[in-house]
Amino acid sequence: MNSTFLTGSIAIGAALACAPALADNNSPLLIQNAPVYTFSAFGTIAAVQTNTNDATYITGNEVEGATKHANLGPDSKVGAQIDAKFNDTFSATLQVFSKQNGVSSYAPDVEWAFGKLKLGGGFDLRLGRIGAPFFMTSDFRNVGYTNLTVRTPVDVYGLVPVRTFDGGDILYKTDIGSTTLNGQLWLGKSSVRIGQNAAGDEDVGLNNIAGINFSAENGPLTVRFGTMKTRFGVSTSTSGTGLAGLNTLLGGLKQLGALPGLGELETIGADLAVENKFASFTGLGAVLDTGNWVVNAEYVKRTTGSTYVTNANAWYATLGYRVETFTPYVSFTNRKVTSTTGYAPIAVPPAYPPLVQGTVPVLVSSVNGALGSTSESTSALGVRWDAGKNYDVKAEFQQIRVPANSAGTFRDISTGNFMVDTKVNVVTVAVDFVF
Amino acid sequence: MKKLIKTILLCSAIVGTHAAFAQVAVVVGAKSDIGTLTADQVSSVFLGKSDKFPNGTTALPLDQSPGSAVRGLFYDKVTGKSEAQVKAAWSRLVFSGKGTPPKEIGSSAEVKKLVSSNPNTIGYIEKSAVDSSVKVVFSAD
Q: Structural domain boundaries of chain B?
């Protein structure tokens, strides 16, 4: 994990800083004069299979997922990181990460690229591209080796597909008695790739992000609270085309909504639009790691000003027990969508011609198609085996219950399916490594 | 009676030798200002929860080789965690850009050399390897 910077990493290292003096492995290097570079990497290779071909199991916004045919897409990923410590107060981190994204590509992203300055008195300042701290385990949510379960619970972590932000944060750390307190203020912007249209990639931007996080750690117990707000909307980097399908729909709603007696359509359109809308996200979590027991739990709540991105709350609770190198666990998760997921038919005044009479129901059903619930709950039974000094092997059986008329977190649902309460079984086998 | 005492002495000598072999001493340089530490304070430094000694000076922990007996014993007795747990804990810090794990040193002799030359360093060695170049700040059976 901490093999000191070697020649193989020069390419990335060169991007980081000018003319690095390589750390001399034989010297004590503990009193620093020259910059010290550390190279680390992590990854997961995982196969997922379900017991249905009626829907595709995904873990985020990726395209290729699992059905009755096992798939490596939902969980496989790899990342590499270089940390450069220039002196006692200034350091920098670069992380490159690859996982299947919203356009079915594994092209690596510059996940992090930030400089960190120690301000003294327990304060640190970071500037650049930084891990977005929405959740308790945001920073290392993709490092399977650091997590007990095969993946961070999709019901909870899938609510925010944003992994990084561009901006800055101030970190504060202090000890009060035997309790360590951490505080964080973060400000910046971000974007997430959600699909493609004829004009190019479709991104949703998160602007004016402002968030705070607090955590307290005392011995085996850590408690964490975080809240943030943002203005989100279709990114202008897509030449204004944005969510092409949605924009066509919004245009139709606006046009017909302007007619007397059909104002409700305009309201529906305004609520649906993804344009400079307010959103907030709040989470409360705790970890207890004592003796052979490990317990994790987190509750989160998403609130947005667009019906297209639902309001939802979600939680998970995981309990594991270590037996030598094996840690069997059980995990329960739940997501509940609390905002509108569909509109009732709208009565059209009889005076309107057949074209309007026919178009209004089509518009409403298109809106309902664009909305839809993602509520679901899961129960999982799994085991982590610390098989070697820097890798683990995990296996998990999971049953996902998708209530009637919800799509859960699945995609490509065959017509007519998931209309009733449905259970889907998911089996995952994973190998995680760090070095 | 004499024979019995002799036997008891011999037995305790054997037990004593065994205990010495299975003991870990957490050490700093002989001239260091650091006094006695608690297991929690040592754990904090070696698990990356703190990069300072209780007196506020910078703490640079030194690890021994992965898989070595003294390393397994140290983490088990002092932090109460397995090496896999320790690895996972450090991975959380590394992959959140918050720290780099302790440097790995090949032998107790080298650990002694480093701690006696740099007052910020702290290491662990077999208790039997303790000599005048180092100061024991914590020891565990």
A: 23-140
Does pLDDT of A26 surpass 70? no
Chain A interface mutation, best of B93, B94, B117, highest count of A Cβ atoms under 10 Å: B94
Interface contacts A/B by beta carbons within 8 Å: 87
Q: How sure is the predictor about B6, in pLDDT bands with cuts at 50, 70 and 90?
A: low
Would the pLDDT of A8 be above 60? no
Between CA A368 and CA A378 the distance in angstroms is: 25
Beta bridge partners of B138: B26
Mean pLDDT across A222-235 = 91
Cβ contacts of B66 on chain A, cutoff 8 Å: 389
Mean pLDDT of all residues belonging to chain A: 87
Crossing angle of helices A354-370 and A244-257, rounded to 10° = 140
**Residue B52 in contact with partner chain A when CB distance is under 8 A:** no
Whether the CB of A43 is below 8 Å from some CB of chain B: the reply is no
Residues of A in contact with B90 (CB under 8 A): 1
**Please, which residues 332-361 of chain A have a Cβ atom closer than 8 Å to chain B?**
none
| Rounded CA separation A300/A138 (Å) | 13
CB distance from A112 to chain B under 8 Å? yes
Local structure of residue B78 (DSSP, 8 states): I
A224 touches chain B (CB under 8 A): no
CA distances from A410 to A60, A75, A103 (A): 9, 14, 16
Contact A137, A152 (CB under 8 A): yes
pLDDT above 50 for A5:
no
Domains of chain A: 7-434 (2.40.160.10)
The ipTM (two decimal places) reads: 0.77
Q: Which residue has the tokens 């399908």?
A: A245
Would the CB atoms of B118 and A31 count as touching at under 8 Å?
A: yes
Q: Which amino acid is at A95?
A: Q
List pLDDT tens digits, range A388-424.
Answer: 889 999 999 999 999 988 889 998 888 777 778 899 9
Q: Are B50 and B40 in contact (CB under 8 A)?
A: no
Q: Which of residues 234-273 of A touch B (CB under 8 A)?
A: none
CATH architecture of B23-140: 3-Layer(aba) Sandwich (3.40)
Cα(A292)–Cα(B80) distance, integer angstroms: 10
Average pLDDT, chain B: 84
